[in-house]
């Protein structure tokens, strides 16, 4: 299939049409209008076969996932996702595969009212690079660098499910079918916390999405904010699937170090905490208080029912094992 | 080297800093401000090793090229390039390679006053996907679909040099050293016609950049504009290197079908032609009139000194040889 045919069949005229898209797929560039008094938020994430997903991932899940991880970054800024560009490198072309892949991508795009405004389709090893754009009212974006001593540390949803899905495939862990289905779904079809991010505007002092693991991502907040934190590990939210499958001790690597859950980790001042609780309930956003910001320079103290707890951190670093 | 180290060393704090970038590399998203009364132009291009460039390409040339092909799309819209996001997938990490690659990228970014605002660095087969953003005054963007019967067809610079560089490497053509140096430079360090694109705003009726070959790219204009064209092949501009190396007949595949020159192909009404000539001279933009738009549905008539001329077209199609 020729590149133009592929784009025409699977992208052009598919999905939603936003009023702020002045020119979509089919010219040298797309043209869009950013609302007045809004900033443009831009993020890029690449998924590479064998690095970020299993070769046997369903194409529909991959299409969903590739977009979801980008929308998650927009969510972490409190931005409203609007437009995405899709760089798609494919090793060989099965119509069935592309149909399912683009279906997965269009589904999540439609759900979040995002329009695919362009991209590039090339031949080569399976790689997907998406550049997602969103808008956020001027000065209202959530950054990593605003956490203050005394702020409370929160996380949405539950942690560790995606990691458990990965390891259950690698190690063949014994997990009940209903739980296995749940965690596989959490890994294959991650939900970017877009509504949560927008609720947090003007309330959270800092935010990040948990893509590299709780401790690794918390470190980013601490580094940028020049503070430390203590985390009460018994308060880290876990799913039924997690609690039914592993002992508390066994859960720790998953909830502390595994990424790919795409929950939001954020901090909120004591003054804003009750307003936040109210807003979260109002919008149906689940979030748990898991610790507090302390003075210091990037240290994380883990507590278990008030007692110090030792844990060796290992975040997900693409180049960690490489020699320079 | 860890991903964060790589980004910190080669991207963060390197290159220019634009005042309209509110938040650059280092958070979940970048934040930028689009000027009032401007539209945002967005384009994405992917370069894959073995498909879009030779494996032995100098990393500096590759860094330049990856950005240049994107800026060329912005140029073809008459947009001012502003910000880019870089998705970089690397098979293995030599500091020397990354240093030279990013140097090539920063050089052209600085030349065009473009800021690298983010990206993603992953491990895998060498692939570069850049999403380039630019701004264009509302309603002033150059599109492919505006060519009218009677408009004149122009192209900037010279055509075929990049194609000649490719074939000289593949076939070992005999080309004089100075000419070889010139055409290799044209392929390795293409110049996006950014100033030309901005000069054309309000004057050209349509525009596109020549990335797939003159005939293939002209076809895009004709299809979108629902017109035909006649091209006087003796008027297609060629370089000294081209004319010294090949006979006129030999030149034809290069100037008609080879892409990668990244010149601008555009149309202008008879009414605007003298103003265009004036402006082009004023800004030092070289452009040649090569034909005229005719009524019809996408046909290209080639003329050689007024006589009909037959030529079999072959554009550069990434998936052309693939079975569906």
From TrEMBL, chains A, B:
CDD domains from the entry?
A: ThiL (cd02194)
One Pfam family from the UniProt entry?
A: AIRS
Q: What class of enzyme is it?
A: transferase
Q: Which residues bind Mg(2+) 2?
A: 45, 73
Identify the metabolic or biological route this protein is part of. Cofactor biosynthesis; thiamine diphosphate biosynthesis; thiamine diphosphate from thiamine phosphate: step 1/1
Q: Which residues bind ATP?
A: 119-120, 144, 211
Which GO terms are recorded in the biological process aspect for this UniProt protein? thiamine biosynthetic process; thiamine diphosphate biosynthetic process
- Listed binding positions for Mg(2+) 4 are 28, 43, 73
Quote the catalytic activity from the record.
thiamine phosphate + ATP = thiamine diphosphate + ADP
Q: Where is the PurM-like N-terminal domain?
A: 26-136
Q: What else is known?
A: Reaction mechanism of ThiL seems to utilize a direct, inline transfer of the gamma-phosphate of ATP to TMP rather than a phosphorylated enzyme intermediate.
Biological function: Catalyzes the ATP-dependent phosphorylation of thiamine-monophosphate (TMP) to form thiamine-pyrophosphate (TPP), the active form of vitamin B1.
HAMAP family named among the record's database cross-references? TMP_kinase
Protein name as catalogued: Thiamine-monophosphate kinase
| The organism of origin for this protein | Pseudoalteromonas espejiana
């Amino acid at each position: 299939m020729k590149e133009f045919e592929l784009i025409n069949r699977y992208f052009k005229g598919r999905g939603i049409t936003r009023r702020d898209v002045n020119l979509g797929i089919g010219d040298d560039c797309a043209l869009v209008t950013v609302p007045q008094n809004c900033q443009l938020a831009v993020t890029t994430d690449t998924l590479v076969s064998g690095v970020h997903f299993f070769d046997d991932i369903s194409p529909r899940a991959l299409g969903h996932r590739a977009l979801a991880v980008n929308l998650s970054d927009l969510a972490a800024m409190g931005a409203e996702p609007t437009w995405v560009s899709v760089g798609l490198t494919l090793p060989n072309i099965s119509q069935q595969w592309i149909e399912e892949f683009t279906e997965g991508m269009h589904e999540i795009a439609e759900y979040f009212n995002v329009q695919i405004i362009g991209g590039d389709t090339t031949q080569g090893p399976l790689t997907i690079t998406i550049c997602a754009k969103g808008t956020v009212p001027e000065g209202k974006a959530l950054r990593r660098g605003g956490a203050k001593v005394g702020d409370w540390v929160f996380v949405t949803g539950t942690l560790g499910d995606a990691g458990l899905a990965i390891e259950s495939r690698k190690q063949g862990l014994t997990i009940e079918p209903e739980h296995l289905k749940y965690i596989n779904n959490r890994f294959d079809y991650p939900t970017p916390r877009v509504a949560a991010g927008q609720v947090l505007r003007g309330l959270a002092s800092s935010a990040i999405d948990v893509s590299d693991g709780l401790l690794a991502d918390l470190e980013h907040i601490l580094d940028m904010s020049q503070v430390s934190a203590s985390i009460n590990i018994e308060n880290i939210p876990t799913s039924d699937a997690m609690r039914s499958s592993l002992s508390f001790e066994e859960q720790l690597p998953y909830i502390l170090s595994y990424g790919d859950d795409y929950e939001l980790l954020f901090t909120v001042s004591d003054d804003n905490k009750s307003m936040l609780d109210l807003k979260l309930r109002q919008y149906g956003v689940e979030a748990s208080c898991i610790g507090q910001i302390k003075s210091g320079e990037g240290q994380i103290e883990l507590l278990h029912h008030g007692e110090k707890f030792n844990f060796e951190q290992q975040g997900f670093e693409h180049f960690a094992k490489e020699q320079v």
